[in-house]
Amino acid sequence: QVQLVESGGGLVQAGGSLRLSCAASGTIFSVNEMGWYRQAPGKQRELVALVTSVGSTNYADSVKGRFTISRDSAKNTVYLQMNSLRPEDTAVYYCNAFVKQTRYQPRHISYWGQGTQATVSS
């Protein structure tokens, strides 16, 4: 089994910063793409940022220049540094990772964390 555990959410004023972390644990052979998604009340879950196993990144237009995704592959951990936060960034942030548990699996499987709340006050 694979678990993703997020941390780092909280309450911050507009213009402030938060740093989210997500660690994958369990039986892991390799981790491919890792990413962050968010879901605000009444809205669909949306992509925030992705990072591949070789370090390529992709961001939603709404967070470009403000958020930075990074990973520590040795620790199977992904981070999201969120700066210049806005009230519209308020959401539950979910970590996602594509994992192979053994070398014999034909493809990486998607796993999700339980989510961490980030609230930005105006």
Structural write-up:
With 122 residues, the protein is an all-beta fold. The chain is 0% helix and 57% strand. It is built from no helices and 11 strands. The strands form 2 sheets. Strands 2, 4, 5, 6, 9, 10 and 11 form a 7-stranded mixed sheet that branches. Strands 1-3-8-7 form a 4-stranded antiparallel sheet, with no helix packed on it. Strand 5 and strand 6 (57-59) form a beta hairpin. The protein is elongated and about 50 Å long. 30% of the residues are buried. The mean pLDDT is 97.
Assign a percent range to the helix content: under 10%
Structural class: mainly beta
Number of helices: 0
Shape: elongated
Total E-strand runs: 11
* Rounded mean pLDDT score: 97
Which sequence of SSEs, written as H and E, runs from N to C?
Answer: EEEEEEEEEEE
Indicate the radius of gyration in whole angstroms: 14 Å
Residue fraction in strands: over 45%
Main sheet: strands, sense, barrel: 7 strands, mixed
Instruction: Give the end-to-end Cα distance, rounded to a whole number of Å.
Output: 40 Å
Low-pLDDT segments:
none
Outline the secondary-structure elements.
Blueprint: E1 2-7, E2 10-13, E3 18-26, E4 30-39, E5 46-51, E6 57-59, E7 67-72, E8 77-82, E9 91-100, E10 109-112, E11 116-121
Compact summary:
The protein is built from no helices and eleven strands.
Any descriptors?
122 residues; elongated; mainly beta; 7-stranded mixed beta sheet; 4-stranded antiparallel beta sheet
